[in-house]
Amino acid sequence: MPWYAFYWFLPSTWQTFQFEHRWALWLIPAVAGLFALRQAFGKRGQQQLQMSLAGAVGTPGRWGRLLGYLRFAVPLSLWASIGFLLVALARPQLVRQLRQEESEGIDIMLAIDVSSSMTETDLKPNRLAAARQVAQGFLAGRRNDRIGLVVFAGEAYSLCPLTTDYTLLRQYIRDLSPALVRTTGTAIGDALARGINRLRDSPAKSRVLVLLSDGDNTAGNLDPLTVARLATGFNVRLYTVAVGKRTARTRDTLSTAGQFDEGILQTIASVGRGAFFRATDAGQLKQVFAQIDRLERVPVQVRTYEDIQDQYRPYLYWGVVFLLVSLLLKNTVLGNSLED
């Protein structure tokens, strides 16, 4: 932007400035006050050269008034010069802050049960829908962490690798349904193995696997406790969440839908140096994720950089211009040569 542009006088431009020496701006009205006092009290002792405009073309009174007004041009230009120089002295600056947040980050794998029993409605609207909603909220609370997703029923699949693309991950979580895995059953051991396999080569200092399930380990080729022991060797911490209300077992009947073995989930969490949680409603499930979120936090270092650009030059140039104008006007009929 050239120094003579009208841009430098716009109020919107001044609102973007920060002044290094704001006190200099207060001198501008003070200088104006000195000029006013000089005009008021110094007029009596002022030597003046009387000129007659009787022979001028037009009305003498109008020319006299015009000449009288023009005599203010010299002090006004001098005051403008001093004012712009004071603005330059105040050092207007454009300050842009760059905020950079750094953290070591955590690698987290979510292993979510999508078996048909997750459509039970003891959690509203159903277990899987509640798990999807709470997992979305869990993502919103993470920053700088890589998160991946494993889904399982009778088999386990790695649906999304570790990523910081939370938008993509939310899309995967939104699409969770029992149709993703056709094989019936609950392969907890296989799900743990899939998640640990993603985490074992992670460079992160903190590696976490969160498993949500509502059933016994009824499928798969791997024993959950054996896999949990392997997790400690890869520095992976295991959290298990039992989703839903337990269905009572009786001597004569055994309801498979909705039952789970809390003992195996508790043991997995204990061996995996994590914690076991039970969520019997959607609100409690949300609290579980909030607690895991608090447990798995790392310090965030915030660095703030300031890009400072001085903008005093245009006002310095205008101050010099008005100073030259005032000197030029003093050498014309508008100046008072008797005082100079």
Strand order of the largest sheet: 5-4-3-6-7-8
Mean pLDDT: 80
Q: What's the total helix number? A: 11
Compute the number of strand runs: 9
| CATH H-level homologous superfamily name of the largest domain | von Willebrand factor, type A domain
> Which range does the strand content fall in?
15-25%
Secondary structure topology:
Layout: H1 11-15, E1 18-19, H2 23-41, H3 60-70, H4 73-90, E2 92-103, E3 106-113, H5 127-140, E4 146-152, E5 156-163, H6 166-174, H7 188-199, E6 206-213, H8 224-233, E7 236-243, H9 262-271, E8 275-279, H10 282-295, E9 300-310, H11 313-330
Parallel strand pairs: 3-4, 3-6, 6-7, 7-8
Antiparallel strand pairs: 1-2, 2-9, 4-5
Describe this structure in words.
The structure is a single chain. The protein is of the alpha/beta class and 340 residues long. It has helices at 11-15, 23-41, 60-70, 73-90, 127-140, 166-174, 188-199, 224-233, 262-271, 282-295, 313-330, and strands at residues 18-19, 92-103, 106-113, 146-152, 156-163, 206-213, 236-243, 275-279, 300-310. It has 2 domains: 6-97 and 308-330, no CATH class; 105-298, Rossmann fold (3-Layer(aba) Sandwich), CATH 3.40.50. The strands form 2 sheets. It has a 6-stranded mixed sheet, with helices on both faces. It has a 3-stranded antiparallel sheet with strand order 1-2-9. Helix 2 runs antiparallel to helix 4 (73-90), helix 7 (188-199) packs parallel to helix 8 (224-233) and helix 8 packs parallel to helix 9 (262-271).
